[in-house]
Amino acid sequence: METKQQPPLLGKLTFAGRLLLLIHLVLFVGGSALYICDFIPQLPAGRYPVIMFVTPVGLGCFFLFLILTWILERIGIRIYKQ
User: How many angstroms separate the Cα of 64 from the Cα of each of 6, 7, 29, 39, 71?
Assistant: First the structure.
């Protein structure tokens, strides 16, 4: 019996899907860095977990990704290959 291997995640995305994913990864990393650099100087001295600063940016990028994916699908631009 031969098992058919599933393509990796990027293999399931079209060019538009890959571009959308890349843009959101750059937004997530850049947004997190800007948020940390802007917010940390206002805090009192101490140690803070990075996840505390990354979570709001990550959630924003996630919901933006979902909304843009839905909009692109509605106007006929495929994100996933058939």
Answer: 27, 26, 15, 22, 10
Q: Global pTM?
A: 0.74
Q: How many Å apart are CA 47 and CA 32, to the nearest integer?
A: 17
Do 68 and 20 meet the contact criterion of CB atoms below 8 Å apart?
yes
Could you tell me the residue ranges of all domains in the chain?
48-82
Q: SS3 for 17-46, per residue? A: HHHHHHHHHHHHHHHHHHHHHHHHHHCCCC
Query: For the chain, what is the mean pLDDT?
Result: 85
Q: What are phi and psi of 32, to 5 degrees?
A: -65, -45
Distance (Å, whole) CA 25 – CA 27: 5
Q: Which two tokens stand for residue 55?
A: 């979570």
Count other Cβ atoms within 10 Å, centred on residue 71.
10
